[in-house]
Specification:
Length: 133
């Protein structure tokens, strides 16, 4: 799922360039408001990551913690994916590629940085299972 989300960000950038031919200058207030929303979304994802993932990783010995770990990663990926969608929307509002590029870039970069990492489940003191992307 993580790789699909990364590919989707690239696909949004490609599709926007193929489908939107003209670019004009968007009002600065619109671009800034989209940027502020993207920053708020990234901060929410960071806060959720810090709050939920740390407790889920510490308690990965039970099935409920594993479910919380997966839910946290999915929610974080969806939030970061929405940043790319803001760039996609700006492009369809006839903003230039250079206006939408930071949204695509930060979405892709944060998805890479905050992507799921392997964690080991511990049963009776021995590693028995691996959780991957």
């Amino acid at each position: 799922m993580h790789r699909i989300m990364l590919a989707a960000v690239l696909l949004y950038a490609f599709l926007a360039e193929r489908l939107v031919k003209s670019a004009r200058s968007l009002p600065l207030s619109m671009t800034l408001s989209f940027g502020i929303v993207a920053i708020v979304i990234a901060l929410i994802a960071l806060g959720y990551r810090m709050k939920t993932l740390s407790s889920a990783i510490e308690a990965l010995q039970d099935a409920q913690a594993l479910i919380r770990w997966r839910e946290a990663h999915i929610l974080i990926m969806v939030l970061l994916h929405s940043v790319a969608l803001l760039g996609f929307a700006l492009r369809f509002l006839h903003g230039s590629f250079w206006v939408a590029l930071p949204f695509y870039f930060f979405s892709f970069a944060l998805l890479l940085i905050w992507g799921p990492r392997e964690a080991e489940l511990v049963n009776d003191g021995a590693a028995s299972n691996s959780i991957g992307n």
